[in-house]
Structure prediction request, 70 residues.
Amino acid sequence: MLAAGLAAVALRARALKAQERYFTNRLKAETLRGEYFLFLGRIGPYADDRHRAQRLIHRVAEVKAGEGET
Prediction:
């Protein structure tokens, strides 16, 4: 019975880690989506035509690294 209880706890912990990864990836996806619309609309940091593509590349790298999820 103890083994079954420990197995249940282990499965639950593994499931929570998967859920945490899902939410982290979902947040990154939504952040990138927001950046995409700012880029298309030439809004904020993307208003300057000379640097907007480079700014987008930098921002994608930040989000991918997990640095800018706001």
Residues 16 and 22 are 10 Å apart (CA to CA).
